[in-house]
Amino acid sequence: MRWLAEVHVSLRPGIADPEGQTIGSALRSLGYETVAEVRSGKLLRIAFEADDPGAAETTVGEMCRRLLANPVMETASWELRADEQQDAEEAVPS
Amino acid sequence: MTIVGHRPRVAVVVFPGTWSERDFIHVAADVLDWEPYPVWHLEERLGACDAAVLPGGFAHGDHLRTGAIARFSPIMRSVEAFAATGGPVIGSCNGFQVLTEAGMLPGALLRNDHLEFRCDWQWLRVEHPASAPAWLGDLADGEPIRLPISHGEGRYVADAETLDELEAAGRVVLRYADADGAVRDEANPNGSERGIAGITNAAGNVLGLMPHPERAAEPEVGGTDGLRLFRSLERWLQGRPAAAERRL
To answer: Which range marks the domain in which residue B20 is found?
Structure first.
């Protein structure tokens, strides 16, 4: 079945994030003076096939470890859900 | 010392997006009279080489992270095997980024702290050249050298424990400095931790550095300090069997 993972990759706490700092300055200069901190990151949406939730979870974890995040400076978290719409479309022959 | 009169054979790895391979090959062939040859990243063998070069550029478009995809190119297994047997490997700029992503050197390289791409001549202080004799053997501890830098992602980071270990082992071999060799925050062009511009692996045969030694090998381009790294390699290779005589 088809799964959708939303993977968030962000810099580890303590690693300077000049892009986030610059965005924070821009927000403050627009009048959002209460902005204390902005941390930037990446969002990756991954559609893939796996037999069951356990296998899907394992696969995403592996993708993060092997490629998507560099543990030296990044952490990854993700949300995983079954792509029911895609599965339904595939079940109906067109 | 026995001097073996062979011309060093140097494999220059080319990924899609690499851009400094021609400069390395030009310097090796035309300035040093070596035998350089390009090796496409899909190849599985470096061939019979005396040294391997990972040049600068934007391998695989620098997508995801610099060097993140390049580390999975087939040729990297051969680069790792060559390094594991003590073969001299140099990774400059993007090549340094690939070496860290591949786990051949610790740490990582992130966006410059000022978010700008920097292309300029840069003074560096040489430290512990004996830690990387193949590449820095001709240089003196503490001496300033001047090389070009050209990068947007050169901010070296590692956790404090790793940085302490690197320093204690004499594996930080180049730091951003001013013209008299003083390491100061003002001389740091990218916000690298502790001014680190170049490090070596524990065995000392793998050197990663953000500057471009191949762009400082002829007086016409403004400096020749880069040539000294290559002369160091020549001297280091003396007395060693030529690549063709070794089983690779």
So the answer is: 9-245
What is the rounded CA–CA span in Å between residue B104 and residue B109? 14
Check residue B242 and report its DSSP letter.
P
Q: Residue B173 in contact with residue B199, Cβ under 8 Å?
A: yes
Whether residue B81 lies inside any domain: the answer is yes
Min Cα–Cα distance to chain A from B174, Å? 21
b/e sequence B7-45, b meaning 16+ C-beta within 10 Å: bbbbbbbbbebbbbbebbbebbeeebebebebbebebee
DSSP 3-state assignment of B81? helix
A51-90, pLDDT tens digit by residue? 999 999 999 999 999 999 999 999 999 999 999 877 777 7
DSSP letter assigned to residue B216: S
Looking at beta carbons, which residues of chain B come within 8 Å of A71?
none
**Active site residue: B60, B93, B101, B127, which one?**
B93
CATH number at residue B188: 3.40.50.880
Distance CA B28, CA B52 (A): 12
Asked whether residue B2 is domain-assigned, the answer is no
Q: pTM score > 0.80 for this model?
A: yes
Class of domain A2-91: alpha beta
Residue in B108, B112, B113 closest to A70 by CB: B108
**Cβ-based contacts of B101 with chain A (< 8 Å):** 70
Alpha carbon of residue A10 to chain centroid: 9
* Phi and psi torsions of B21, nearest 5°: -65, -35
Residue B93 among the catalytic residues: yes
